[in-house]
Design brief:
The protein is of the alpha+beta class. The protein folds into 2 domains: 2-126, no CATH class; 129-206, Alpha-Beta Plaits, CATH 3.30.70.260. It contains 8 helices and 6 strands, in the order ααααββααβαββαβ. The strands form 2 sheets. A 4-stranded antiparallel sheet has the order 4-5-3-6, with helices on one face. It has a two-stranded antiparallel sheet with strand order 1-2. Helix 1 packs antiparallel against helix 5, helix 1 packs parallel to helix 6 and helix 5 (81-99) runs antiparallel to helix 6 (102-126). The protein starts with a helix and ends with a strand.
C-alpha cells in the first residue's frame, strides 16, 4: 500500500484519472495474488504441480483493462499514457513484494517516482525541443477565428503540429491545437497573448 500509494500520490496531485487510491489498490491486489500463489504452491505441491507464476502472469496481462480506462482521446489529443504505464509498474511492484523481492520493489518504486516527478522537470529545462503542449480553446463560431490564432502563433515562433475543431452550430465551439513552444516563450506568456484575442477563451493547457 505504501509503495503503490507513493506513486499514486504524484498522479493524484497532477489530477490524473487514476490517482492515490487506485494505485494503492492495484499494488495491494498484486501482492495478494503472489502471496496466494505461494500459499497454493506450499499447500498443494505434495499432491500436484502448481505453477506459482501463473497467477502473477495474469495480473500483468489483466492490468490492461485499468490502463485502458485511463487513456482518454479528447479531440486530437491522447492523454493518460503515463498513468497507464504507472499502473502497470505498480502492479509489477506488488508482484515483487508478494514474492519477497523487497529490494527490487523498493528500487522500482524510487525510480518510478523519480521518473514521474524529476524527469518531467528535466524535460522542461534541458530538452526545450520537447516542450509540446496541447491547447484546448473555446472560440466564437465565426469565420476567421482560427486564422487569427494561427497568425498569433506564427508571430511568436510557435510550431503548430495539429489543429482540430469540434463541429457544431453553437455560438462557441472547441478548438484543439498541438504546439511546440520556443525556448524563450513561457506557457504563461502564451496564455496571456491568446486571451487578448477577441472571441477566444482558454479552456485547458496540457503538456
Amino acid at each position: 500500500m505504501v509503495f503503490g500509494g507513493l506513486i499514486g500520490l504524484e498522479r493524484e496531485i497532477g489530477n490524473r484519472p487514476a490517482g492515490f487510491r487506485t494505485h494503492t489498490l492495484v499494488c495491494m491486489g498484486s501482492v495478494l495474488v503472489m502471496l496466494t500463489s505461494e500459499y497454493m504452491f506450499n499447500a498443494y505441491s505434495n499432491v500436484t504441480f502448481p505453477d506459482p507464476g501463473r497467477l502473477g502472469a495474469q495480473v500483468i496481462s489483466g492490468i490492461g483493462f485499468l490502463g485502458a480506462g485511463t487513456i482518454l482521446k479528447d479531440g486530437s489529443r491522447v492523454r493518460g499514457l503515463t498513468t497507464a504505464a504507472s499502473l502497470w509498474v505498480v502492479a509489477c511492484i506488488g508482484l515483487a513484494i508478494g514474492v519477497g523481492f523487497y529490494w527490487g520493489a523498493l528500487t522500482a518504486s524510487i525510480f518510478s517516482y523519480i521518473t514521474l516527478v524529476l524527469l518531467k522537470k528535466f524535460e522542461g529545462r534541458f530538452m526545450p525541443g520537447l516542450r509540446n503542449y496541447d491547447l484546448q480553446l473555446e472560440i466564437l463560431n465565426v469565420p476567421g477565428q482560427i486564422a487569427q490564432i494561427t497568425n498569433l502563433m506564427a508571430g511568436l515562433n510557435i510550431q503548430l503540429r495539429d489543429i482540430s475543431v469540434s463541429a457544431g452550430e453553437e455560438e462557441w465551439v472547441q478548438a484543439f491545437f498541438k504546439v511546440i513552444l520556443p525556448t524563450e516563450l513561457s506557457r504563461k506568456t502564451l496564455i496571456a497573448e491568446l486571451t487578448r484575442l477577441h472571441g477566444v477563451k482558454i479552456f485547458e493547457v496540457d503538456k
